[in-house]
Amino acid sequence: MAGIGDFFESPTGGGVVVGLAAAVLTPVIVPVLVSVAKPLLKSIIKSGIFLYEKGKETAAEITEMVDDVAAEARSEMAGAHAGGGTAAMTEKLTYEEHPEREGRGKRGADKAPKEEA
What total of structural domains would you count in the chain? Predict the structure, then answer.
């Protein structure tokens, strides 16, 4: 005769026991997990916002630094032009900053002055 011990040792009996335990413990475990997970999730989100803001500040500082260096380089190139710099440097400065004057370049190609016949 099959006894109750045989039922719990069978795969079906084990599954039933696990299912009943889950049904009984779920109302107790879920609120505990939620109470622990919510502050953890909130902390993760706060950290993400903080890192995003710091990244924006750092990017703005780097952009400002690069702009300053580029302005210094342009100033030096203009100073070299005034002090008898090379023609290639002058042409490059004029071409990059004012392509419409030269009538060439990516932005100035369509604005090139037309020659009169």
Answer: 1
Write out the two tokens for 106: 């990516």
pLDDT digits (tens, 9 = 90+) for 20-56: 888 888 888 888 888 889 999 999 999 999 999 999 9
84: which DSSP letter? T
Joined tokens for residue 97: 């900053």
Please indicate, yes or no, if residue 2 is contained in any of the structural domains: no
Please state, in angstroms and rounded to a whole number, the distance separating the CA atoms of residues 100 and 113.
Answer: 9
Q: 3-class SS at 66?
A: helix
- Cα 110 to Cα 93: distance, rounded to the nearest angstrom: 20
Question: What number of H helices and E strands is found in the chain?
Answer: 4, 0
Global pTM reads 0.42
d(CA 111, CA 84) in angstroms, rounded, equals 30
Host domain of residue 70:
12-111
pLDDT in tens, 57-87: 999 999 999 999 999 999 988 887 776 555 5
Query: Which letter does DSSP use for residue 58 in this model?
Result: H
